[in-house]
């Protein structure tokens, strides 16, 4: 049925290449993680790290490395993976190279619901309940789904064209942002500032607890995305072709979008709205390994992780000791890339 | 293909496993406290003091903590003759609580948002937190030192003072700080009775052309109305929301009919040339008293409040 | 020689004939006069609404028998009137900027906020706040102009590098990207220099606390800008029929474009410097004006100015009354009106 499943010498070669590339990227990520571990407000030499890793370091170094720097980096990796994969899915489903969950309003939908959730929970009581943080990804997920449904419904006019979807997404994004602003201005100054920093994308107060909250989402939905990668590849052949190959297009689209929203919403709830990762990572991945999603998604996920780890390292070193929300750094890197794509893309 | 899937999976699992391991061995604060308990039982007969903090956590307070980190609570610590290990600051240490610098001049600064690594670097042995923060963050701070989040509302300095006294085992000193303050406040109250009975006042913070008015029960507002006994203008009551300082328009200020204006401002603003400004009774009667934004008016605590009382006295005696 | 002159003559003739054909029937003039009347009515009503309600008599007296010791008179003269005039001017500026941008780019989604021009202004204002906190109002306007130029420049540059120019979709996307970039930079500055709250109000937009001096300053600019815009109207109308045709009819396209961009910069820069980034007026109003006034920009431009003024005065009135005594950011309100409209356009536009 699906020709891409038949072995061919060409394919084997391509696979080998992707596998090597994947390994290389993992190594690159590893190096970056090392650099990131070593950089921060407190000085830590490579020798210190080595001693700590081998179990001969001081207690302070152990604390610093394992409890403060490592969870932050792991969170960065997970968030990058989630957002990049979500981006690949959105781009695949909409067949639009410019569809980024941050640009088309999925993030601001998630962010709006998350902030609303926090605001309502703290409205009538001084202290939020214990489960407040566990509930956050779910609130974000509901927000993301609402945004996605809204975009889909509004863009529906005897079918959904990719372009209309993105345009409507921009509008929905603006709408949620305005609503968010209204909620934010009702908050007290300290909550306001916290919301601002959180929404700009920040992982500075990462902990293992935060990692554990995000992990299940990533562990469930990344494999699902990989499982559905074939469908995504088929979709790229065009609707008629895909239907001809026996893909129930609308149904699959909805499944895929749910996976994408879940990944992006969980990431947003952990790190705030970081735009452009979901845009850049799939593009770079496509350049490197081509458009087959079975190969593209893993590579894309690693690139996403690299991107966030790199940005986070920059975020805490450029203006140290001031920490810049990592999302802002990603935007400053990502927006020009987006513009570059815009200039070169063929419609 | 499968290899790649497995690769990603095993990577994530590896990382997760890392996380779990760490948590088992180090994250759990209980482990740390158990050790400490053992240690203290050897030295002390009295046993460790365990208090329940504002988040409902049981916090073990170390005996005679030497390095207390209490960001934005330095006023209270100073009142108890305790020098904090680091002091609150903004803008990379450029902005500090200037009114306390007689006592805190030699204390190093720490960013207001208390980044973990900065906290680690000052090596505290007790951390007091003023605002209700997320449990996650408290868990992380707990890895550095026992962390106690105050029960007292940060907007009530008396509660805060007593609680800090309780936590640091200086309850009597804290009570006497409050008593001394109340006695001092009596003097100002009687001065207001004499010179400005039944007259209203407001503290206005002016930043360029933006105006903010103090909440009647918070910061210097509690001193102005609660201790010194000025009348609260109607508009101030309406505006008081959740903020210590609420934004107020010139129009509302003009509507306030306030007799005494305590203006917190660094230099003149074009607002003051405005006809509306000129029409405010306090301005017409020359009852505007200006203090700079580094003065105690914007802060909380017995020392800040006493300085505010001094300012009120000297203003009325002009 | 003769031939050329004849050619030009006929070109002028054709232009005139064309304009006649496009000239809106008489209703346009009538509608304009009626809407100016309505605008004045709205503005007057707006004077009486606010924290302290002020009666009609007071309003009348504050003009006829001004008493500087009466608080309500001073409030009317020094606070309400400047504020309402500012709202009207800003609304008119943004609407006219939008009309010109849409006419220039032949793009129904072109408008100051969508193209990132307002973000550019706000960015430079953030820079000014951080590095020159003592900037006078004059200097702030200059910063704002520079910023508008920056935003526009970036979008135009993107357009000129794009192979087939900026389609409506690309334009909206480019604007979103430019805005994202500039807002990120602004926020970094805001966080580092601890001026976050000041700047976020610039992004929310609002005309509270506008001073009469600024209104006067802006008023002069407005007058100049609107007159130039009006003078451009004929060329813009003809360019609306396609560049080839306009070229054929002797319109100096490059020149007209240059002047138009300059007008857009001045109008948008002035608007942002006084009210922050108030979104969507420049998108919504031109479409309404074109629907009502026809295709002739001689009527569309003044129509947009009046409608835009009316919309922002109304929005500002709502901002004051929704949640007294607090001000709701007017930018959020215009977005609530503008977003559905944008979505409507997007549905129409995204056909291809």
TrEMBL record, chain A:
The keyword Transferase does not apply. Gene3D superfamilies: ABC transporter involved in vitamin B12 uptake, BtuC. SUPFAM superfamilies: ABC transporter involved in vitamin B12 uptake, BtuC. It is a multi-pass membrane protein. One of its GO terms (biological process) is siderophore-iron import into cell. It is found in: Cell membrane. InterPro entries: ABC_BtuC-like, ABC_transptr_permease_BtuC. It comes from the Bacteria. The keyword Transmembrane applies. GO terms for cellular component: plasma membrane. Pfam families: FecCD. GO terms for molecular function: transmembrane transporter activity. The chain crosses the membrane at residues 20-44, 73-90, 102-123, 135-156, 162-183, 195-222, 259-284, 296-318, 324-343. Its main location: membrane. Keywords: Cell membrane, Membrane, Transmembrane, Transmembrane helix, Transport. Belongs to the binding-protein-dependent transport system permease family. FecCD subfamily. This is Iron complex transport system permease protein. It comes from Alkalibacterium pelagium.
From TrEMBL, chain B:
GO terms for biological process: iron coordination entity transport. Residues 22-44 have a biased composition (Acidic residues). Belongs to the bacterial solute-binding protein 8 family. This is Iron complex transport system substrate-binding protein. Residues 65-318 form the Fe/B12 periplasmic-binding domain. It comes from the Bacteria. Residues 22-50 are annotated as: Disordered. Keywords: Signal, Transport. It is found in: Cell envelope. One of its GO terms (cellular component) is outer membrane-bounded periplasmic space.
TrEMBL record, chain C:
It is found in: Cell membrane. The chain crosses the membrane at residues 28-51, 84-104, 110-131, 140-159, 171-196, 217-238, 258-285, 297-318, 330-346. Keywords: Cell membrane, Membrane, Transmembrane, Transmembrane helix, Transport. It is a multi-pass membrane protein. SUPFAM superfamilies: ABC transporter involved in vitamin B12 uptake, BtuC. GO terms for cellular component: plasma membrane. GO terms for molecular function: transmembrane transporter activity. It comes from the Bacteria. Pfam families: FecCD. GO terms for biological process: siderophore-iron import into cell. InterPro entries: ABC_BtuC-like (IPR037294), ABC_transptr_permease_BtuC (IPR000522). PANTHER family: FERRIC ENTEROBACTIN TRANSPORT SYSTEM PERMEASE PROTEIN, IRON(3+)-HYDROXAMATE IMPORT SYSTEM PERMEASE PROTEIN FHUB. Belongs to the binding-protein-dependent transport system permease family. FecCD subfamily. This is Iron complex transport system permease protein. It comes from Alkalibacterium pelagium.
């Amino acid at each position: 049925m699906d020709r891409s499943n038949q072995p061919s010498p060409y394919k084997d070669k391509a696979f080998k290449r992707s596998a090597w590339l994947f390994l290389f990227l993992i190594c690159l990520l590893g190096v970056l993680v090392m650099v990131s571990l070593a950089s921060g407000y407190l000085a830590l030499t490579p020798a210190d790290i080595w001693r700590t890793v081998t179990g001969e370091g001081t207690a302070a170094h152990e604390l610093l490395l394992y409890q403060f720097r490592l969870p932050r980096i792991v969170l960065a990796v997970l968030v990058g993976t989630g957002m990049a994969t979500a981006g690949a899915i959105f781009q695949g489903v909409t067949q639009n190279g410019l569809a980024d969950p941050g640009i088309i309003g999925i993030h601001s939908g998630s962010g709006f619901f998350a902030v609303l959730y926090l605001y309502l929970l703290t409205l009538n009581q001084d202290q939020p309940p214990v489960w407040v943080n566990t509930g956050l990804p779910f609130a974000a997920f509901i927000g993301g789904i609402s945004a996605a449904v809204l975009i889909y419904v509004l863009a529906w006019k005897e079918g959904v064209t990719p372009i209309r979807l993105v345009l409507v997404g921009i509008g929905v994004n603006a709408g949620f942002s305005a609503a968010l602003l209204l909620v934010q201005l009702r908050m007290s100054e300290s909550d306001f500032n916290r919301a601002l920093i959180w929404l700009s994308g920040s992982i500075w107060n990462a902990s293992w607890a935060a990692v554990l909250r995000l992990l299940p989402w990533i562990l469930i939905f990344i494999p699902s995305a990989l499982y559905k990668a074939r469908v995504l590849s088929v979709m790229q052949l065009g609707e008629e072709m895909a239907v001809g190959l026996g893909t129930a297009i609308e149904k699959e689209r909805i499944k895929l979008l749910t996976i994408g929203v879940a990944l992006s919403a969980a990431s947003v709830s952990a790190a705030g709205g970081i735009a452009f990762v979901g845009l850049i990572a799939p593009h770079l991945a496509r350049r490197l390994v081509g458009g087959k999603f079975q190969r593209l998604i893993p590579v894309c996920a690693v690139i996403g992780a690299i991107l966030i780890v790199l940005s986070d390292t920059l975020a805490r070193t450029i203006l140290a000791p001031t920490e810049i929300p990592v999302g802002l750094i990603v935007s400053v890197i990502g927006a020009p890339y987006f513009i570059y794509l815009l200039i070169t893309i063929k419609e | 293909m499968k290899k790649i899937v497995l690769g990603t999976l095993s990577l994530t699992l590896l990382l997760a496993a890392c996380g779990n391991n760490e948590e088992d061995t180090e994250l759990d604060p209980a482990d740390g406290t158990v050790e400490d308990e053992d240690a203290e039982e050897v030295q002390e007969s009295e046993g460790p003091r365990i208090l329940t903090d504002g988040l409902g956590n049981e916090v073990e307070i170390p005996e005679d903590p030497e390095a207390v980190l209490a960001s934005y609570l330095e006023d209270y610590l100073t009142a108890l003759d305790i020098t904090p290990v680091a002091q609150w600051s903004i803008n990379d240490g450029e902005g500090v609580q200037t009114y306390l610098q007689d006592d805190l001049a030699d204390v190093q600064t720490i960013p207001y948002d208390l980044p973990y690594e900065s906290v680690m670097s000052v090596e505290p042995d007790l951390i007091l937190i003023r605002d209700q923060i997320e449990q996650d963050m408290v868990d992380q701070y707990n890895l550095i030192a026992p962390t106690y989040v105050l029960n007292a509302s940060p907007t009530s300095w008396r509660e805060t003072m007593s609680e800090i006294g309780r936590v640091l085992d200086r309850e009597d000193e804290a009570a006497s700080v409050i008593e001394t303050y109340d006695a001092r406040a009596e003097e100002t109250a009687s001065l207001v009775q004499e010179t400005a009975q039944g007259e209203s006042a407001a503290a206005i913070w002016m930043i360029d052309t933006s105006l903010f008015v103090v909440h009647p029960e918070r910061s210097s507002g509690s001193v102005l109305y609660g201790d010194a006994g000025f009348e609260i203008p109607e508009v101030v009551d309406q505006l008081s929301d959740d903020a210590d300082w609420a934004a107020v328009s010139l129009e509302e200020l003009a509507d306030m009919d306030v007799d005494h204006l305590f203006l917190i401002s660094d230099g003149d603003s074009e607002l003051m040339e405005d006809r509306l400004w000129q029409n405010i009774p306090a301005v017409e009667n020359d009852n505007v008293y200006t203090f700079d934004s580094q003065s105690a008016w914007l802060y909380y605590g017995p020392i800040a409040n006493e300085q505010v009382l001094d300012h009120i006295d000297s203003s009325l005696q002009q | 020689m003769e031939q050329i002159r004849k050619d030009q003559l006929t070109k002028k003739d054709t232009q005139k004939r064309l304009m006649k054909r496009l000239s809106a029937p008489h209703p346009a003039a009538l509608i304009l006069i009626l809407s100016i009347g309505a605008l004045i009515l709205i503005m007057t009503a707006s004077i009486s609404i606010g924290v302290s309600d002020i009666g009609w008599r007071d309003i009348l007296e504050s003009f006829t028998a001004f008493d500087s010791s009466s608080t309500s008179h001073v409030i009317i003269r020094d606070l309400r009137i400047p504020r309402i005039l500012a709202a009207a001017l800003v609304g008119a500026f943004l609407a006219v900027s939008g009309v010109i941008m849409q006419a220039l780019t032949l793009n129904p989604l072109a408008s100051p906020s969508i193209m990132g021009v307002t973000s550019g202004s706000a960015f430079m204002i953030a820079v000014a706040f951080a590095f020159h906190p003592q900037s006078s109002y004059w200097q702030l306007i200059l910063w704002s102009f520079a910023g508008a130029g920056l935003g526009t420049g970036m979008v135009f540059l993107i357009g000129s590098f794009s192979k087939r120019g900026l389609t409506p979709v690309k334009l909206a996307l480019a604007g979103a990207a430019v805005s994202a970039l500039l807002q990120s930079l602004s926020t970094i500055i805001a966080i580092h220099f601890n001026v976050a709250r000041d700047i976020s109000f610039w992004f929310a937009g609002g005309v509270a606390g506008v001073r009469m001096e600024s209104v006067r300053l802006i008023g002069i600019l407005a007058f100049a800008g609107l007159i130039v815009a009006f003078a451009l109207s004929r060329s813009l109308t003809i360019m609306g029929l396609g560049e080839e045709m306009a070229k054929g009819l002797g319109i100096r396209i490059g020149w007209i474009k240059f002047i138009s961009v300059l007008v857009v910069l001045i109008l948008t820069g002035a608007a942002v410097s006084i009210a922050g980034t108030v979104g969507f007026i420049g998108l919504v109003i031109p479409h309404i004006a074109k629907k009502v006034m026809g295709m002739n920009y001689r009527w569309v431009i003044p129509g947009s100015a009046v409608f835009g003024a009316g919309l922002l005065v109304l929005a500002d009135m709502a901002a004051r009354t929704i949640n007294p005594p607090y001000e709701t950011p007017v930018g959020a309100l215009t977005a609530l009106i503008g977003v559905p409209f944008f979505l409507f356009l997007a549905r129409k536009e995204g056909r291809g």
